[in-house]
Write a structure and sequence with these properties.
Number of domains: 2
CATH topology of the largest domain: Aspartate Aminotransferase, domain 2
Helix content: 40-55%
Largest sheet: 7 strands, mixed
Oligomer: single chain
CATH class of the largest domain: Alpha Beta
Number of helices: 12
Bound molecules: pyridoxal-5'-phosphate
CATH architecture of the largest domain: 3-Layer(aba) Sandwich
Structural class: alpha/beta
Order of helices and strands: HHEHEHEEEHHEHEEEHHEEHEEHH
Number of strands: 13
Shape: globular
Strand content: 5-15%
Amino acid sequence: MMNDGTTLDISEPEMKATLQYGSVAGNQELRHWLIDLQHRLHSPPLLESGNELNTTDLIMTTGCTEGIEKVLEAVMEEGDMILTETFTYPCLFNLITPLGVKAVPVRSDDEGMLPSALDNVLSTWREQTSGRRPKVLYCIPSAANPTGVTWSMARKKDIYNVARHYGLLILEDDPYYMMQFSRPRVPSFLSLDTDGRVIRLDTFSKILSAGIRLGFMTGPKQILERVQLHMEVSSVHGGNLAQIMILKVLQQMHYEGFMAHGDTVSDFYQERCEKALKLTKKHLTGLAEWRVPHGGIFLWLRMLGSSNSTEVIRKAHEKGATFTDGAFFMKEGKPCEYIRMSYSLIDDQDMETAVKILASVLREEGNQDGQENPENKDLHD
Ligand SMILES: Cc1ncc(COP(=O)(O)O)c(C=O)c1O
């Protein structure tokens, strides 16, 4: 039953089919629904219409994480390198290490990865000394974990052009796409992809349920075919019950309801974000700086008086507040100036207590005066 009292029915034949092994690509009806969604949201130049769906254009996954894993396992070889932002989703490091793949960090600014930095890494690459030139770029272009940055459209176009020049595959991990605060949302890499070099990963984790473990991968047929073959031998498929449940919910919502729900989720987190910004301004001014997130659930703080994120996290934890160490998001991470604050579900009072604890730790760590740093101003205004 839905919150509004609507009952969703799974018919007997549907249930019988659900309880058997299914297709690796996923529930056909759900895939059609999602193909239609991708058309409406991204107008992917290469994606065919729902009715002519080739089974390899959109594959269900058990979430973005499985999507990353399966793509990398299918396309990477031991000794390969993968391009990432300097600070990125730590799970990527966990996934590449057993594959014998290494990350190559590329610098970013407030609009996303820097095309000049990416070009510089690739144009100066010497295979004799550094190994095979990277062929995959991994990115989190909306409200990134951990930085909160949403890549601008201009930046995506520039990065896409660099990727085209060097023949890169772009792995677009976009769990926070619907959680962008501004509308219209910044279009995806998939919407730019005329070459067939983008694999896009979506998930229901952030908008419907994380525990249901369901996501989907959209991309060029030839590559998804390889990924699907790999999935067939490595994981069979995710749970059919989760797929039919999500299908029923989506069919009940229709596209318009799904979008309205996405807006509600995004508005909820924007309100939490504004609260977090008020508190950081009140208690951390002069002790840290930050940029205003354009979506998602994270505030990325640069400490002004300490470059030992690990120590700050430890002390804050001892006093009862949990933040995440910036080192965690870096290749071979070492203590640094950055920590991540999550403002998603914590209530206002606990959030203020946690921010005050952090302020006290930062004061102890050396930045004693607590004065407004003029350079800080435009970062939180
Ligand atoms: C960038 C990024 N990718 C993937 C995930 C995990 O997504 P899923 O639950 O769909 O596996 C997260 C969740 O924290 C994330 O931040």
